[in-house]
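Dear Dr. H.,

I hope your travels went smoothly. While you were away I took the liberty of generating a structure for the chain from your last submission, since the lab meeting agenda had it listed for discussion. I wanted you to have the full record in hand beforehand rather than looking at slides cold. The sequence, exactly as received, is reproduced here:
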Amino acid sequence: MAANREEILADFQACTGIENFEECLAHLEQNQWDLQRAVVSVMGAQEPESVPDSMPEELPPAPTVQGLMPSVVQFSGVTPCTSVPRAFEPHRSRSPPPPSRVRMLEFNIAYQDTNTELVVEDFRTVGTVKELLSASLNIPAEKMMIGGWGHAKPAPSDSEILSTLELPLKNVLYVLTPGVPTTGTDQANGQEPSYSEKLTRSFELIITDTDLSQEYRLRYEGCKTILNVKQGISALTNVSVRHQQWRGWPDESDSLTLAASGISFPNHNLFFCRPQNHNKTDQPTTSREGVNISDSEDDVPEMDIDDTTIFSNEYSSRKFEPLLPADIENETDGLIQFSHEFSSRYGETHPQFYMGPLEDAVREAFSGAAIERKLLAIYIHSDKSVQSNVFCSQLLCAESIVNFLTQNFVTWAWDVTAEENKERLLNTCTKLFGSVTTATVRNLNQDKFPLLLIVMRIRSNTEVFSVLQGNTGIDEMMTSLIHAVDMFTEQRQTEIEQENDRRAAEQLKQEQDAAYQASLMADRAKEQERIKQEKEDQRLKEQEEQEIREREAEQKALLQSLEQQLANEPSEDCPDPMTTLRMRVPSGDMLTRRFLADQAIRMVLVYLGTKGYHTEQYKVLTTFPKKDLTLLDSTETLKGLGLCPQETLFIEER
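The corresponding predicted structure, in token form, is as follows:
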């Protein structure tokens, strides 16, 4: 795709005769890189047109913010709105008539945790951008400082026209509001963020150097530790961590994160000082070129200073300490010194270097979920190259480059001025990226340094995508960075989709496994319940059988006892008086037996008991008069009850 675009750009320049690179790029991007449409739009715009003698009364409408979201202001399309707010009318008089060809500039402007996206015509002014931001952020325009204008040095005034700044179509800016207190959203709502929310939010630390009466306002994420803050102050003040004395930490354990330290959110005041016997950093201030600046400029002789004089090959003639000493033992300590010395040379506006070994920087950039991955930029510095000073001050510290690297890269730096450090880096590159990268860095001439290596991971392979040398221009550098980000974003999107597919498949498998386990547990529960029920039924059955056996045994024993008590039935020719009793049982059968007349009624009841009709369950009734023999005295005789010589009795259940 990059090769095709280069061919399209070359053909477009040949057809139109336009030599300005950014102008050609603007035409092609507005026509989606359609060569024919771009050429037609330019050739049509170059045809002679009738120019009015005077400027029309109404200018095209001023740009507006299109669509507000809770934390990000987004735009839909690039067509400006048709209504002009009153607040923007004063800028109309300062804007010149729009040219025949208008470029639509896109701005992504960061302020604290909010990004605002604007689309503005290039014939508008810087003040118009501020007015738009003022309307969306509710911050007075006069209290705003907008940075990130690229090579526009110094910062443009509000009356400057955007087209004169030679801006690209897409720009990344940032807003500073000194003097405007920051208030967190949670505090505005009267709610304190949770610990997990604080880990992802930014704290503003207002640190007062009580020795020098100087105040620093630093922003740290809640996941950073107290030690990170102290190391940052060490880089700013050249006071080591062990010599720092603090007030304002609720808990000063260096390993605690800011979210867990108990400090106020989102702002917290801290006080920092040095021990009494520690030398304060009150040395004369040095300029970026390394020349001491005294109070009176008249006392300073004129000096012809160039990069060769300052950054010569001999450390003894340099005004600065080496970025990286040759005798370092711990890479992290060395990189902290690198960042501190780099800030001393080129100012505080520079990429945020990763403080740790290169292996950890690779893991930071490429480990984790695909959506969280970034590119890795490796800056290789060399004080032996005369291009190092220009590259750092004009390219690497340019606000547009710094912002782009911060958003899309993990940046790691190393100094190969000392041969020991160079060999150390080459050995690490061989282990991480292979011998080809190592040979490329080793064989480059010294005048090609410094280098910026763009590293990306494609299909689990970590490789160097491109190498930017010290003679690179800022446009070429930004184009290379954007191209690398486009390639990486496209590949990362594929990996994100693959991860989503794997995650969905894994989730489906987990749901299926969970459903199977639930079904299996339900089946096991049913089986256990069935076995339990069977055991209970078996127990009841055995208990019932046991009761039956016991009842049968009791009945058998009772029957034997009754049979033993029952007297023998007298024979028909017995000379003693006797009676014949006919007994109708509930089933309708008739029992007949002879008894001696002088036998007690108890003997009849014993006889019935031997037949299974016990007096506890049955009544023995006479016909007339109707009497229940079981209720009478069992010793009375049959003769005395009038049951002789014969009688019919009825057996009924009670």
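Two observations you may find useful: Residues 60 and 191 are 45 Å apart (CA to CA). The first helix runs from residue 2 to 16.

With kind regards,
E. W.
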